[in-house]
Amino acid sequence: MVSWFVAVAVALGAALAALLVTAARARRRARRFADAVHVDIEPYLRRKSAEVGLLHSPPVWTRRTPPDDIVAWSCLLARRLNDRERGGSPAPDSFELGATRPIP
């Protein structure tokens, strides 16, 4: 009976260790993704939104900022830019498709 208890305890310990390792890897992966968004995508979004007057007070990110907040803010900014281009007159240097002539 004691050996069965020890085997279950060892199995639970191994499962807990695997869970902790997986969680740590997921956090590192999310941080790398958020850092890539912050360095590669966010400067472009900030510049474009400042050109059209959407960006009023940009947040300041730190290493303690959750990765989800960085990515969510960048997505919100991109959504606002897209909505502005779809709904109103696009910015003069927009990449939207030009009007085409109908085929006769």
Q: Which descriptors apply to this entry?
A:
single chain; 104 residues; mainly alpha
Describe the protein's architecture and organization.
By secondary structure, the protein is mainly alpha-helical. 69% of the residues lie in helices and 0% in strands. The protein is built from 2 helices and no strands. The model has no long low-confidence stretch (mean pLDDT 83). The protein has one domain (2-55, 63-87). The protein is elongated and about 80 Å long. It has helices spanning 2-52, 67-87.
What is the total number of structural domains?
1
For the biggest sheet, the summary is: none
DSSP summary: helix tally? 2
Order of helices and strands: HH
Structural class: mainly alpha
Q: Mean of residue pLDDT?
A: 83
Number of strands: 0
Q: C-alpha Rg, in Å?
A: 24 Å
Q: What are the low-pLDDT stretches, counting only 5+ consecutive residues below 50?
A: none
Describe the structure concisely for a colleague.
The protein contains two helices and no strands. With 104 residues, it is mostly helical. The longest helix is centred in the first third of the chain and has 51 residues, at 2-52.
Structural topology:
Blueprint: H1 2-52, H2 67-87
